[in-house]
Amino acid sequence: MLTHQLEPLAQQQIDGIMELNTSSFQAEEALSKGHEQLHNVIVNTIAGEPVVDGMQQMVAAMGMISNLEKFVHEVNNLYL
Questions:
Q1: Residue 31 CB coordination number (10 Å)
Q2: Is the separation of the CB atoms in 38 and 67 below 8 Å?
């Protein structure tokens, strides 16, 4: 009698684990893509033409820092 009551709960747990596995995989893929995009931005900025205007350089740096901040925030959320 107790086994009959526990079986649906066990299936619910299995379903929950499968959903968690899927969402974790999707989060890892999104973080991987974000990391690759951030890497490309940094490489392009470093390898790009010399910036004459200090304001342009500051705006580019702020954009990179913002992207890095978002990436770190997503990584922290993944591990919480």
A1: 15
A2: yes
